[in-house]
Write a structure and sequence with these properties.
single chain, mainly alpha
């Protein structure tokens, strides 16, 4: 694909990630605390999913975004409690759920069910040929919002949440 539009677009994307000087940071995410970055990413993901649901569509994206918001909310709490570093959880989705149980953020049975929901349905919705449903999207967004609020109740820095801004 040399000298094609695709090649030029790839080079531009590579440059955008290599040199971030003079680039605009996302509002609300301009914090240096690694835990707060995860918390606020969860807030933004929930806001994006809610906006898409209000437009009555994008079920697959809402489901995917809801699963990611759940993980970011849990990651925030694990990092905030110094029980994990951001790099510890980067490549193992299951570890996020397992670590949440280890620090009693959830019961073992709830953690097992949450992990099973992720294993069984996240990839299935994302990759399968059948379309996701509105009911699945609504349920996942409600679950992600409820878990986010649950995590905030256990945190001493819940006031840093930007969901209602």
């Amino acid at each position: 694909m040399d000298d094609s539009d695709v090649d030029a677009a790839l080079e531009a994307a590579e440059r955008a990630f290599e040199d971030t000087r003079d680039q605009s940071l996302e509002t609300g995410l301009d914090v240096t605390d690694e835990a707060l970055v995860q918390l606020r990413k969860a807030c933004r993901l929930l806001e994006a999913a809610t906006t898409l649901r209000e437009r009555n569509g994008h079920h697959t994206v809402v489901i995917e975004t809801s699963f990611v918001a759940i993980e970011r909310s849990i990651q925030f709490y694990l990092i905030h409690r110094n029980t994990a570093g951001g790099a510890d959880l980067r490549h193992d989705h299951a570890a996020v759920y397992e670590r949440a149980v280890e620090i009693n953020l959830f019961s073992e049975s709830f953690g097992d069910r949450l992990l099973e929901l992720w294993k069984t349905n996240r990839a299935a919705v994302y990759y399968r040929e059948a379309a996701a449903t509105a009911e699945q999207a609504d349920a996942m967004l409600e679950l992600a919002t409820t878990i986010h609020e649950h995590v905030l109740r256990f945190s001493s820095v819940g006031y840093e949440c930007i969901c209602n801004q």
